[in-house]
Amino acid sequence: MEEDDKTSLWIKKISYVSPIARPLASRKLTxxxxxxxxxxxxxxxxxxxxxxxxxxxxxGEKGLVILAGDISPIDIYSHIPIMCExxxxxxxxxxxxxxxxxxxxxxxxxxLVMINxxxxxxxxxTELHEEMKxxxxxx
Length: 139
Known about the structure:
The chain is an alpha+beta fold. Helix content is 47%, strand content 12%. It starts with a helix and ends in a 6-residue tail after the last helix. The mean pLDDT is 91.
C-alpha cells in the first residue's frame, strides 16, 4: 500500500472518532499499540471490554488502558478515563474499534483494553507507557 493510501485511510478512520476522544494516539503510536496488544493477547496479559477493565481498575490493577475512539454512543465508557486519572493509570484513544479487536485476535470489535505488564514484552510496554505519558492531557 502506498503512503497516500495509508494517509487517506488514516484520515477516514479519524473522521469517525468522537470529539471527546482525547488524547488520540498518532498513526505511529497506534501501530505500536496494536503490536503490544497482539503480544499481550498471546501471553494472556490483556483485559478486554468495559465490564472487565472497570472491574480490574476498581480492584487496583495497574496497566495501560486503550480506548476505541469510534464507539457510539460514547456514554458506554465515558467514565473510564476518570477512573484511570483517579488511579494514575495511563490511557489513550485509538481511532478504530475494529483494528483494536483485530489486534486482540478476535473477529468482533473491541471498545477498550487494559494491557498488563509482562516479562515477554516488558521493553515495548515501558516504551509505550513513556510515550503515552507525553500525550497532552485533555482539559
